[in-house]
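Protein 1 of 2
SEQ + STRUCT:
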Amino acid sequence: MRIRDESQPAPGHPPRHAARVRLGRPRTLVAALAVGGLAVTGLASVSGAAETDAEAGGTAAKAAAAQLEKLDRGLVSVRSGSDNLVSWRWLATDPDNVAFNVYRGSTKVNASPITGSTNYLDKGAAATETYTVRAVVNGAEQPASPGALQFRSGYLDVPISPPAAGSDYTYEANDASVGDLDGDGDLDLVLKWQPTNAKDNSQSGVTGNTIVDGYTLQGKRLWRVDLGRNIRSGAHYTQFQVYDYDYDGKAEVAMKTADGTVDGAGKTIGSASADYRNSSGYVLSGPEFLTMFNGSTGAALDTVDYVPARGTVSSWGDSYGNRVDRFLAGTAYLNGSTPSLVAARGYYTRTVIAAWDFKGGKLTRKWTFDTNSSTNSGKGYDGQGNHALAIGDVDGDSKDEIVYGSMAVDDNGSGLWTTKNGHGDAAHLGDLDPSRPGLEYFKVDEDSSKPSSYLADAKTGQVLWTTPASGDNGRGAAGDIWAGNDGAEMWSAKDDQIRSASGAAKGRKPSSMNFLSWWDGDPVRELLDGTRIDKYGTSGETRQLTASGVHSNNGTKANPSLSGDILGDWREEVIWPTSDNTALRIYSTPYETDRRITTLLHDRQYREALAWQNTAYNQPPHPSFFLGNKMATPPRPSIKTP
């Protein structure tokens, strides 16, 4: 492992990314102001937003070096017209002043070392050409990278093998995640197979088993886990986390399991004969487990009781089995340097979140947050969850918090704040307003008596502005998609305008409000919906990609299997299953860029977001810093690798 002196940045290069300090915001109540259907509000509705040392004039500690993946260059060659776009990762572990040379075969193609970006357009080259890249450090060329993955048709197909069909269902490739399963420095894929008779929790009926596979990017299947008949299939039942929890250089895979789950080594967890399905297809009895699997083999490493147990079904909001089985999962650096597994249950009434560490082959519970506990009961934390969660360092102490719908839980398992605005379907955590210190949080609401959407300070939960109540506001998005406005734009299904970070109406909202993607060469983000990518314009969108021969997932949610910066430079790849479910088709941008940004995989918040993206109603990832038009010099994360 290379240890680098982080105390002094290299001359002419930005300082390392440290926790941002919020400088004593006024804590007086701000009167609500009506601004074109917008309410600008203060702290009146926020519980638990206590003053911190930083606000009282102290300073936040320097961010700890987080343990993240040791990655290779992720080199890709993408066909772009009659040219090849070659791109690669700038790693957080590289020197700030590193340069690069690109080789086609044994021939160097760049005239001088490349310093302004991490891509190179090889004009007129054949689609079949092979490439490597070599770092140049203090004038000395380093060893060649592994050869480039070739996207000869603009995409790369990773072969996958569908499970055998049942009597009344087949299998579709569904959500995916990434992690270095075998420790070779490149990312592998973990894929959830969903039967075509999968159910929403509100729907009765027996389902086929949920199957989870591990694959290399070359299409080698490493293992298959069959979750068994006692794990119902559907978007809310199986949330899987792929992460290197024990810092051995290989990712593990964590999932909820039950009697009859068969691991990748063919061993059954619990009783192989147990069948707890009732006449309506629900599983409302029997033991529930949490299992950590070996990412290389799929073998179960440790299995513990799932926390919390279901207990009395009706205590979660209904008696037939809908709300009791609403599960969320994530990965958080609760101590600032090492990752913990987060597993949760419930959001309509009671919520329980358990944090787990995995060391020495054992899962150990770190803490449990329960809205029914004597500490939290009656404080407005219950009934606040979304169909997803977000994770990031919201209070600038270098440790992660869990933003859980309309409330947040601190790194130590204590309630941090609640807006009491209740449940919703979509939310975005990021530096949405770069003119303010720290992170912001945009959320849409389902309660017809609450604001249809709002922007909050992610540290305190202070609601900065709202849009009027208008019933179930089922969709919303936030990101800098338009260079004509500073900071991120926000829009939702129940609002007829796109809004600025201050809440001001800015005109036509986009035709989609789903996923986002940094796709072309500028830092403004594009719109990702279904199987297409569009660039926003004030009068209409411009199509940048129409993926062919693929399908989106999860019905009307129309999300990809995974979207994020997983290969090449800082732009984002998109993974869709092919229409016949025999491959995962990875698209990577064919556009040049003049921007040099550290791989987003080494931004802790972004990497965590890739891990929780598959959770329930998938949401796009956001980094810990503002990436958009007029952005500041992007930070260089302080990390360590195995």
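Protein 2 of 2
SEQ + STRUCT:
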Amino acid sequence: MRKKEKKKNKELNFLIHEPTGLYRDGTELRGVYCDKPLAARDACTATGPSACDFPSLIGNDEFYGGLGGEFTISTRSETSGTIVLRHELGHNLIDVGEEYDGGSVYSGVNASPTLNVKWSHWLTNPGIPTRAEDAQIRVQDYAWYDLAEGAYTIPFTSDGQYDRWAMRFTVSGCETDESLVITLDGNRLPWNTTVPIFFFYFSSFCVFTYSLASKFAVPTRSHFLRVLL
């Protein structure tokens, strides 16, 4: 989400009524890019000298997405707009790395290579010694895939060394519980549309190669139907 520019090698999906030319690249529902940076800079200049130190652009779009860099970009999404804005603005205000799994960049004031963290006074129980919670990510994939094209399947392997496992995924354009089917080795996993992010907690895996699949089940009224795993 912090890329400052992107090669236009796919179909561009411009957001509606955006004077700064905000767009998405192909089917990707993550990055929102600015096609008219001069218009954004002119808007900042019009506010007056030194009145636009950290410019933010809010896209007219209800789906998740954003970007950091010269402009902090987010959308009007009711479920993720303010979260993305806070995240990306944080990158611009101070030197902080990512706080999510698979973010690659773990540096800055919010990162520590040891358990002797500098922010221990902000922990829930600062008087208790800090400990590491060991975990392994078996599957992490930003699919940006239109499920109308067919099922999306991800194989993965477990070494059976952990007592439990969890799965987290997000989707766009699923209005009903029947819109999307998630299966693990052919067994359907339960989920519902009442929350934007879904978690599953189960007992441990065996040493085995598994298959995680997502597929489009029934028609949807939304223009987009995407799965983000």
